[in-house]
Amino acid sequence: MTNRIGIAGISGRMGRLLAEEAAAAAQLTGGTSRSGAAPGDALLYPDIAALAATCDVVIDFTHASTVSAHAAALATSKTPWVLGSTGYSANDQTAIEAAAQTIPIIAAPNFCTGVNLLLILAEKLGATLPPARYDAEILEMHHRQKVDAPSGTALALGRAVAAGRGVNLDEVIASGRHGHTGPRRDGEIGFATLRGGQIIGSHTLSFTAADEQISLTHHALDRRVFATGAVRAALWLQNQKPGLYTMRDFLNL
Question: Which InterPro entries match (predicted)?
Answer without folding.
Answer: DapB_C, DapB_N, DapB_N_CS, DHDPR_bac, NAD(P)-bd_dom_sf
